[in-house]
Specification:
This protein is mainly α and 184 residues long. The chain is built from eight helices and no strands. α3 crosses α4, α5 packs across α6 and α7 runs antiparallel to α8. The longest helix is centred in the N-terminal third of the chain and has 14 residues. The radius of gyration is 24 Å and the shape is elongated.
Length: 184
Amino acid sequence: RPDHPITGPLVRLKRVGAEGFAQKAPAILEAALADPKSPVNPLIAEALRGLKPKSLEDVAFAYDAVFTKNHDRIMAHLQMRGTAGKRAEQDDKAIAQLAAYPFPTPNYEDIATTTQMTVLVSTRAFCEPWQSAPAFQNGNIPTRFFRFDAINALDLTHPGGPGTAMVITDVEKPRDSNVFIRGD
């Protein structure tokens, strides 16, 4: 999206094409960085300000340099998001935007159980509205990447797994339910 804080300038430059890129790119970059309607991430803006790229590849290298330079801070942010009781608001907004690219990362409480993680991964419920849900061939989630079904099966079948029961309410003494001729 041209208004995205991370990729906005890149999207604008991608529209230019290879011919005349070196001449047009600096002005397009400056316009993108100065646009108050679509603020650019400060770390990306710092890397792109004054850049005179000869091709889109030069811009990609500038982006790569930003992510490489801030790798440790991004990893610290992700570690914080994976810790109970910590929230993203407690971290540097520019780093949070880098860490959330291309998809936002949920807080620990949002993914504390396997079921929550499965729902979030399969529906992208933690993503921005413009980000599409994942599309898998024939609707099948590739198990080599998403092993949550196996984890759930292990939770249900392993002797050391948590106790579960398919009931509405637990009672002291279980009883048979009535079976009606037209159904339960």
